[in-house]
Amino acid sequence: MTTKKLAIVTYGCQMNKYDSERIAGLLQQADYTLTDDLAQAHLVLLNTCSVREKAEQKFYSELGHLKRLKRQRPDMLIGVCGCIPQRARGEILERAPYVDLVFGTLNVSRVLELVRQVEEQQQPVLEITDRVLDDDLGALPVARDSRVTAFVSVMHGCNKRCSFCVVPNTRGPQVSRPAQVVLDEIRGLAQAGYKEVTLVGQNVNAYGVDVRPREMDFADLLEAVNAIDGIARVRFVTSHPLDFTPHLIEALARCEKVCESLHLPFQAGADRILKLMRRGYTAAGYRDLIARIRDAVPDIALSTDVIVGFPTETEEEFLETRRMLEIVRFDSIFLFNYSERPGTVAPDLPDQIPHEVKQRRFDGLLNMQKRIALAANLAYEGQTYEILVEGPSKKDPTRLTGRTRTNKIINFPGDPALIGELVAVRVTRAGLYALEGELLSTHIPIPLVSV
């Protein structure tokens, strides 16, 4: 059988990344091989993101580029999947009739059948499902980019209805994957030599609340993953402050494989804006939660999401967000100008903030956060840390790159044979986005946990 080339362009979050790896795993069963060269691909799939307007703009720009490629190669198949089709449905085929396949976030397990349908019918195929298919919750083949670290989905969708967020419309209500399926996938990764897993979901803290009878909550799941031999590190994203229970805080402190790194979005620092966002907590409540987490895990590194320019946000309310950054001192932030998302409540609010005001606030926060982040990184200089070697450095392939348990990127000279190993590295220089170091020890044993 002739081998065909597959190119997947992924936009957005870790869930999309994981979905792309599952799509690749399924299509490899039909003798597709992955390529980064879109011009040589027989099938190009764009796995889209709808959370921010900018991500949609990037997608449509790439779609225009593919139109030109398809003129040169009419046999090329173009597919669009992910969050934009789930929201826009047939709109993509109306705007881009040269697209051959459109499917949503809940149709991943069907991709092989859908591609075959396009090849046989020689006409566009559109399939959007509004509920999670049982096969999507199960064990699908996954073609992972890394042989060291891996994403593992623990759930689909989200039951929170934040007024700015399109995720419930694009990924549906929360559906937790069966715990045994998740744990079996991670055991398989350990047997294959993977050292780190990241548990992913729109709100992992709420894992299990939709299951009746209740099987386990997220803290229980962390404990179970922590007990899997061969796995050295466990991370998770993303968390919602409302679902960060005392039980989960205890698990963070108790599970030695769970890394001291937490992404916990606060979005805005003013209570009135948080209420309009439908976040369900106050700024003081968020800071109290951070204090309790730091009491339990003193060395934890924190990151967050922040939106500036939410409708009706005053200058004083923006300064409350600024004060939140000054008080908490996050290691890193993901900062966004508010953008209207179809199907959400926030665009209907009065007093939309002008772009120039949003940008001024954005720039001010970013500059302040850069100073905070650099100060945090400088504290690492001269210290020695356990590093999981992930591969060659992107900027200098002659060097190795890895991460601290607190999720700091560090580049250092070393033998490529160390990829996948835990090593000791001393930090020699700290920059804003990464650390530089020197290798001290080439092997640190993985802790064994008795069940």
Helix content: 25-40%
Averaging pLDDT over every residue, what do you get?
A: 93
Global Rg:
22 Å
Q: Which strand order does the major sheet show?
A: 2-1-3-4-5-6
Summarize the structure.
It is built from 14 helices and 19 strands. By secondary structure, it is an alpha/beta fold. The protein is globular.
Labels describing this entry:
single chain; 451 residues; alpha/beta; Transcription Regulator spoIIAA; 14 helices; 35% helix
Structure description:
With 451 residues, the protein is α/β, with parallel strands linked by helices. It has four domains: 4-127, 3-Layer(aba) Sandwich (Rossmann fold), CATH 3.40.50.12160; 146-259, Transcription Regulator spoIIAA (2-Layer Sandwich); 262-378, Transcription Regulator spoIIAA (2-Layer Sandwich), CATH 3.30.750; 384-441, Nucleic acid-binding proteins (OB fold (Dihydrolipoamide Acetyltransferase, E2P), Beta Barrel), CATH 2.40.50. The protein is built from 14 helices and 19 strands. It has helices at 14-28, 53-72, 83-88, 91-95, 111-121, 134-137, 167-171, 179-191, 218-226, 246-254, 271-277, 283-296, 315-328, 355-378; strands at residues 4-10, 32-34, 43-48, 77-82, 101-103, 125-127, 149-153, 155-156, 175-176, 196-200, 233-237, 261-263, 301-308, 332-337, 384-392, 400-403, 409-412, 422-430, 435-441. It has a six-stranded parallel sheet, with helices on both faces. β10, α9 and β11 (233-237) form a beta-alpha-beta unit.
